[in-house]
Amino acid sequence: MHNFAVNIKEILKKRHEHLPKVLQEIERWSTLDSEISLLEGVVQELRDHPRTPNQLKDGLRDFQTNELRKKIADALALLRVVEARFSRTTINIGVSGVARVGKSTLLQSISGLSDEQIPVGKGDPVTAVRSRIFHSKSNCRATLLLHSFESFRDLVLRPYAFSLGLNVVPDSLGAFRTWTYPQSEDDLPKEFQTHSNSTMLVRLLAMQKALPSYQGDLSGGERIVGFEELRPFVAYPLHEDEPRRYLAVRDVKIECPFPKVQVESLGIIDLPGLGEIAADADNYHLNGLQNEVDLVVLVKRPLEGMAFWKTEDGKTASLLDKARGFVKNRRDFVFVLINSGGADLELCASLRKSIRMLANDGEEGKNFLVLEADAADQVSVEENVINPLLAHLSMRLPVMDQDVLEGTKADYISLTSMILTSLKDIESVLTCVSTISPSTAEDLEHRGEELRKDLAASLGDLVVKLRSQARSSEETPEYLSAIDLAYEEILSWISNGFGVGLDAWQSKALRSMQAEHNSSPFAATELNRIRVEISNRYCSIDNFFNSRVNNLWSEIAAIFRKGIGELASADDGKKVLKQLRTLMNDASEKCPTLCAAIDDLLALRLEYRTHLHPYVRRELDRLNLQVMDTESGEYKDQIVVAVSEAGAEELYRRITALAEQAAYYTRRALIREAVIPALVLHAAAEQFDDSLIRSGDSLREFKRLARSYHDDIWPGVFNGIIDTNARFAKVIRAIRTIREQLGTLDVGEK
Ligand SMILES: Nc1nc2c(ncn2[C@@H]2O[C@H](COP(=O)(O)OP(=O)(O)OP(=O)(O)O)[C@@H](O)[C@H]2O)c(=O)[nH]1
Ligand SMILES: [Mg+2]
Question: Considering only CA atoms, which residue is closest to atom 6 of ligand 1?
């Protein structure tokens, strides 16, 4: 006997080796998707621009990427299926077949589970929900995947309504509860009055009636339940009026220790009867199966009336083709199992014959390999089902995996050629526009140089103006009034009792002094607070500073606007500079030096805290409680008062005086340093002028700018010449990136 347990592990290991490539492919197609959307954007920009020649506009008119992107999304979905298939840690076998053939009985025999977890039964169909069963050493539990009302409506109610010719579905639980459905076949639209629809209507009405029994379960998400509570969630009720909690369940995963080591890496999936009369039952049960099963066993039971290959079996087999996906041979993927347990020998023989004749075209094993076992007997199942299946898988699974890889690849090879065709279409439109002549090139060069000279002259004037402002140590009235405003506010804050009110302040002081038997702790804390407050209040002059910086940006922006015309058209200086920066970065030939100069300029800050606080800090030191005695050189408290009401009043007076003094001296220091803002602005402008005009690459980059944006800077001058234009170049660049990305596709290649 083979060692199948080891074998399965090896198959899985081999399969996992494909995974990195698949992941890489997923990444690549996601990137391609965003690159194609980028291409669409830049093509649109070029097409919509007023100065793009009409010939080009016309050529690009029909370009759109919706279809490509939809196909990429499909390819990604396929790759995700492959990813799921190759990441699984188990080999999964689905067990399918019409109702009552012993599917669940077979699963019981394989897993060692009992009726409690995998219900089987006589009479009516039993299994209502797809169960996935996995070996687990440590867990014994079932995880339900529950419907939300929305998924219940979309996956259950809507297909019923659709099959019955009813166009509207309830949009909430409450609406479903009181929804008026037709009560009999006769109430259905004429062309929907069929017998099977009548059965379906009965089911739908039963679902509505039973709603109170499962509405509480329509919560969406997962729920773990113990085995003892599982049955009502997975099995149909025995009697019509019993609860129907299974309706809220999409899927259940059962974990438990399997009795035999050899099947530990097997997952088994109980598929409820396919081909039943339930709306869209087939799709519902097969949904998501493609990445979930490696092989399906189609069970047949040779009972009277079922002992031949029926049309339904053929239909089921066709449905399973959907789950087979790219696996080439049906024979690799679907096995027929004759469940001979408790069956009549004659009927067995007749079923065998019927399968050979009808399912296998008269030739044993042509389309399906046929197994035979007693599903209720563990030994028979092991010998006649598990062992042959594992032997088959160990040989054929690697082949099936290869089929899947190749199928997926074929899909996106055709997609690749579709994309390339689209790219060629655009390129052929682009090549029809005229190219640049040598004399035009010269003219452009010259214009680039002149542009730089013009900017240099205007920037030079600005620097000179700022320098003279910095030298003239003259305070601007705006600066003075900004300081005075802050000063007035500080004084009124002081005279209003330091933000808390005179009385409150004094009584707080008294309480603190009484508690500490000392005036110093309170005085020290208050002085610290006042110092911070005064400093913070002077920060309000930052508003004035901001406007100075904004002014500088506007002046420089205006200089640019004079030279570059419509290229940057924002309405405020800072925005113009930012726009320019982006344009330089997006240019067909990039201009990093010019970009960096603008970045530096935009990073300019003029702030009280950074630029002025260091100079006025000394004046605020007056607000320390401890001061040095100039004679003795020792530190002492500059205010000490009696611990009493009168002391508190005195403390208030003394601190007020100190605070007013500090505010006054700070104001004086700020006026003294009034020239600092002008110095900072002058330095910034000079630095900008230097790096924009006099850095090594400056001239080269101005020429680049001229080539990239000639039709915006000098509209009408270079009519029809577009191949150096930035928008044009962006399209070319986007195409190039996509081509590079396409060139490296190679999944599945050895
Ligand atoms: N003796 C014997 N009885 C079996 C065997 N297989 C199934 N049965 C019986 O047949 C009935 C149906 O079996 P289930 O396992 O519930 O069938 P199923 O295919 O899961 O049915 P649904 O879940 O309704 O689709 C039960 O009463 C089983 O006990 C078998 O191999 N031997
Ligand atoms: Mg069952």
Answer: 102
